[in-house]
Amino acid sequence: MASCFGHIRDLIKKNFGIDKENNYKPQYEVSADKKKVVTELKNLVKSAETIWLATDEDREGEAIAWHLAEVLKLDTAKTRRIVFDEITKDAILYAVSNPRQIDQNLVNSQQARRVLDRLVGFELSPILWKKVKPALSAGRVQSVAVRLLVEREREIHDFKSTSYYKVSAIFNVLDKDNKNIQLKAELSRKLRSKNAVLEFLDKCKDAEFRVIDIVTKPSQKSPAPPFTTSTLQQEASRKLGFSVSQTMKVAQKLYEAGKITYMRTDSVHLSKLAMATAKAEITNQYGPEYAKPRQFKTKSKGAQEAHEAIRPTYLDKHTVSGSDREKKLYNLIWKRTIASQMSEALLEKTTVTIDISTSDENFIARGEVLLFDGFLKVYIESTDEEEEKTARGLLPPIKVNDRLEALNIDAVERFTQRPPRYTEASLVKKLEELGIGRPSTYAPTISTIQLRGYVVKEDRPGITRNYTVIRLVKNDSHIKEEIKTENTGHEKNKLFPTDIGMVVTDFLVKYFQGIMNYNFTAFVEKEFDEIAEGKLVWYEMIDNFYKPFHEKVVETIETSRRKTGERKLGIDPKTGKPVFVRIGRYGPIAQLGEGNTGTEGDNTEKPRFASLRKDQRLETITLEEALELFKLPRTIGEYEGHDVVIGIGRFGPYARHKGSFYSLKKDVDDPHTIKLDRAIELIETKREADRKKLIKTFEVDKNREVRILNGMYGPYISYQKNNYKIPKKMDPQNLTLEECMELIEKGANKTRGKKKKK
Fold first, then answer.
1. How far does the chain reach from its first CA to its final CA, in angstroms?
2. How many CA atoms lie within 13 A of 668 on its CB side?
3. What are the strands, taking DSSP E only, across 491-597?
4. Rounded to the nearest 10 degrees, what angle do helices 518-532 and 424-434 cross at?
């Protein structure tokens, strides 16, 4: 048995690696890092009687098997293709007894995806280099994913929060033993203004409160289906804090170890054997009343490739060995699978309506009792919604026409919530809802858009805001008002589009609406499905797409303007020069002045540039904020009789003192706000590090010196801007100038020798 460790070849870089004149025939080459593997496999093939190709069962796996057959020149008469979705003895024996040939339709579907993505990426990316910024890239799925984030960010920016008041009352109820029990109820609607609250509370001063209706209804909750790739990614993110790519890496290890079934699937189906095993395990662990076998139906029309949902291969194994992450993810999969085959949870919900004699409004009290926990004994599904959850339990013993005593009535100011930013999990959910991508593409897509700098995943602090609480207390004719504060808007592990991501998205939406259309991207996925089913010829599908797309590329190169994303903020009142913000070579920048035209004799002053701060955005920065950026370098005080100057250079923000430069700490020190005491701390820290670094100094003459220094990899000699190693057997503290010069000469001779060989 031998492994090819994934794909062994890919499209060549020259001419896209696609023969566009010959039905878009892909031109492949063995990857440099796989040449040794291929050689070893070729040697094994020579002595093998039968070759079994046991790559993954999805399209990617089918393509890998085909590439192996092509490169190794396998004889079809002695080659068998086998697939299984769990690495167990029974599954492998069944696969071996039911071999098949390579499915060329699945291979063509994968090739179509690869060719289409190469054409899109290789034609769009150079346009971005010319029109936006060098080294950018575009992709059919990744660009659409970024568009989702950009549109959500703008929704949030344009959102105007409004306030309202939630009114709740605490009533006193006497039980059968005449003991006081409190009942909480909420007003049936929200009040939109402070005046409405004051008017309502004023009515309640002399009101009588009476129970006018009690409704009790049975209810039940059903378990969620077993995991697909996307739901596993979402739930692992919510419950375990795993990133999407992290989840897939851990799941891959569990699958390879034979602990779970194949982890790239969009099916919620379970085999009869798995259902029977789950029933036996549930009956044994919790009792027969908890077992309820059920088969779920996959809702996605494009669901394909895998035969089963993700589940443990052996459901009687509640835990597994391995890393902490593997144990946690396995436990999550086990619970979800078992819960899917358990009984519904049975509840009883009670709603009490309380009349207010002086108003048309009603107070509503709700209670909920869990009669039978069912699947909740094992597993509760999480959600992305940031909703307010209140615990509901038993209500006090009351009946219709009972009169209630209001102890206090509170109106608390609340605010409408802006749309939530995407997490990795919720982005996967949205992509799946729109039919964009497939199980194998979610993780690489989300990793790529972060790697390219279009998106960042980070935490951001919230803000402090005031809110009003208005209260009416029993036996008090005065309505009291109090201002309180709260923290709101804290973001944790959310995805934020960067300025570059927003500019690139705007450019692509403007000039390539077809590619960026959500429906188009989903339509392409359906066409890939049709190719896999043998209903569509793959190169005809590519041709229908490419010809109009290429025409649009040519047109865009000729017509689009150069400074994409540039925004004029206004005029600097001091200089009278225009102020712009745009994407520069190294990121978002502000520009003061328009600069010279480059013509001979043009004496126009060159513009000044300043990088935007981390918390500033091209779309929202104001003229005043941009002008602040040009106040560097700035003098913040004196130290040891010399000015301390803060500025930004080619290597980032710095403090300059007595001709020396001291770097400011990234993400800690803001050059626009740093104080003198902090700058002195950085200066002294660097000086101390330099003192520890210097071991010894020799003066050769007035213009030359030899220094012995401590480096990252040990002591070394520095001489005339070159560094030379010190042998381990020599003590750097006791080296003489003569010994240093000998080591320098030896080092120089080695360098000259290497140059001669070349």
1. 43
2. 8
3. 491-497, 567-571, 578-584, 587-592
4. 70
For tokens 């359906």, the residue is: 526
The yes/no answer on whether domain 9-102 falls in CATH 3.40.190.10 is no
Q: What is the pLDDT of residue 305?
A: 43
User: What is the C-alpha to C-alpha distance for residues 350 and 399, in angstroms, rounded to an integer?
Assistant: 12
Assigned fold of 229-343: Topoisomerase I; domain 4 (1.10.290)
pTM of the full structure: 0.81
Q: Is 511 a catalytic residue?
A: no
- HSE-CB at 731 with a 13 A cutoff on CA atoms is 2
Domain assignments of the chain as residue spans, ordered by start: 9-102, 229-343, 567-629, 634-693, 702-757
Q: Could you say which residues of the chain have pLDDT below 50? A: 301-306, 386-390, 597-601
**Does residue 488 contact residue 163 with C-beta atoms inside 8 Å?**
no
- The active-site residue out of 262, 286, 290, 422 is 262
- Beta-bridge partner residues of 505: none
Instruction: Express each pLDDT in 394-436 by its tens digit.
Output: 788 889 999 999 999 999 999 999 999 999 999 999 999 998 8
Assigned token pair, 510: 């403007």
Residues 6+ apart with CB under 8 A from 388: none
* C-alpha to C-alpha distances, 12 to 15, 123, 137, 561, nearest whole angstrom: 8, 15, 18, 32
Exposure string over 229-239, b if 16+ CB within 10 A, otherwise e? bbbbbbbbbbb
**Mind listing the pLDDT tens digit for each residue in 534-579?**
999 999 999 999 999 999 999 988 887 666 778 899 999 999 999 9
